């Protein structure tokens, strides 16, 4: 159990690593009211926050496996969102591809490919606690669910991004992040139930 708390803190640290380029490249200050926090504070806040959140959730849902899995899935999902979006922001910054350029889909797919590997490792070993050795069938099932999710995520992100650009209601530098948040929310439940019911169903 304590090992789970440590894992939650490690995931929080990884999340901080990839949230950093999101904040830097979108020029979004880490602010609370009129108080601006330094970006390095994320490397304390997120690991500690994930640790505490998991301690509380594990106590509340200690006898409900599905809810414990959902809590872990959420923690891993936040990390995976930061990995995916952090990579997209970095690639966009260095390639200069704008959000309304169809080539942005290549960047979404590239970041999604990295996120697949990251997600498979953490969802298998921690969220669903799969003990059996990995199999080709299992990975192919995971890959199928995830590729469909990438399609959903990329399509929604592209649609949401172009829609938000036309509305001109938020700063252009922050549209990508907003679009990815919308896309992630849409694909979140698809991923959880797909993994639970079809990939790691023994758990």
UniProtKB/TrEMBL annotation:
Keyword Transmembrane helix: yes
Transmembrane segments: 7-25, 37-61, 73-92, 104-122, 142-165, 177-198
Membrane protein topology class: Multi-pass membrane protein
Pfam family of the protein (one): GtrA_DPMS_TM
Classification via InterPro entries: GtrA_CellWall_Glycosyl, GtrA_DPMS_TM
Location in or out of the cell: Membrane
Segments forming domain GtrA/DPMS transmembrane: 72-200
Any one GO biological process: polysaccharide biosynthetic process
Entry's Gene Ontology cellular component terms: plasma membrane
S-adenosyl-L-methionine listed as a keyword: no
Keywords of the record: Membrane, Transmembrane, Transmembrane helix
Family: Belongs to the GtrA family.
Name by which UniProt lists this protein: GtrA/DPMS transmembrane domain-containing protein
Top-level taxonomy: Bacteria, Candidatus Ryaniibacteriota
């Amino acid at each position: 159990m304590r090992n789970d708390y440590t894992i939650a803190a490690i995931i929080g640290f990884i999340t901080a690593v990839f949230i950093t380029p999101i904040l830097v490249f979108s020029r979004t200050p880490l602010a609370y009211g009129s108080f601006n926090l330094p970006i390095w504070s994320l490397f304390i806040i997120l690991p500690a926050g994930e640790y505490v959140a998991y301690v509380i959730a594990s106590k509340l849902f200690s006898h409900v496996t599905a809810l414990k899995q959902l809590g872990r899935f959420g923690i891993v999902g936040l990390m995976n969102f930061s990995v995916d979006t952090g990579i997209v922001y970095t690639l966009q910054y260095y390639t200069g591809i704008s959000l309304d350029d169809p080539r942005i889909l290549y960047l979404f797919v590239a970041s999604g490919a990295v996120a697949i590997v990251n997600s498979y490792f953490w969802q298998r070993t921690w969220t669903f606690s799969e003990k059996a050795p990995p199999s080709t069938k299992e990975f192919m099932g995971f890959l199928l669910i995830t590729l469909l999710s990438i399609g959903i995520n990329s399509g929604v992100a592209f649609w949401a991004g172009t829609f938000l650009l036309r509305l001109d209601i938020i700063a252009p530098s922050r549209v990508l992040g907003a679009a990815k948040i919308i896309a992630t929310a849409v694909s979140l439940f698809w991923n959880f139930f797909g993994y639970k019911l079809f990939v790691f169903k023994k758990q």
